[in-house]
Design goal:
The chain is mainly alpha-helical. It contains six helices and two strands; from the N terminus they run αβααβααα. The protein has one domain: Arc Repressor Mutant, subunit A (Orthogonal Bundle). It has a two-stranded parallel sheet. The chain is globular, with a radius of gyration of 14 Å. The structure holds a DNA duplex.
DNA sequence: CGATTGACACCAA
DNA sequence: ATTGGTGCCAATC
């Protein structure tokens, strides 16, 4: 799985690990929509590895093309990973800029913008 | 190479 | 409805 995108030339990043699969799916999340760790994990066939998805996003900063990690929240619509961005408010700002209603680290219209890869894709 | 670490999710009470 | 406990598993330490 290393055709439609490429990685930074860092030997520390293998080509076919679980992380890369996560990056692929996250890039498919449309503008103005969001998905969840669990939904992505299920889509990858690793239903019980939601935590791995979040962990994968830690490295997403070093990946090319860029991964819209701000579009991934937990199943309750909370921006649980906001502190991993450049500034504590960046994630919220990015989502707002895409028309998503965020209030106090939580997506208000969550069910309206939720994008489930296992359902939307096929 | 065993132990720890998570940007989570599920379930029992 | 809330809450506390447990499962998970690849990457790191």
């Amino acid at each position: 799985m290393k055709n439609s995108y490429r990685y930074i030339p860092d030997p520390l990043f293998p080509n076919d690990n679980f992380f890369d699969l996560v990056y692929q799916v996250v890039r498919l999340i449309p503008y103005g929509r969001v998905s969840t760790y669990g939904a992505i994990a299920r889509y990858l066939g690793a239903a019980k590895s939601a935590r791995m998805v979040g962990w994968a996003l830690n490295n997403s900063h070093n990946v090319i093309p860029k991964v819209p990690a701000h579009r991934v929240v937990n199943r309750n619509g909370f921006l649980t990973g906001y502190m991993h961005f450049a500034t504590p408010t960046l994630m919220e700002e990015l989502l707002k800029s895409e028309g998503i209603i965020v209030e106090n680290k939580r997506i208000i219209n969550f069910k309206d913008v939720f994008w489930d890869p296992s359902f939307e894709l096929l």
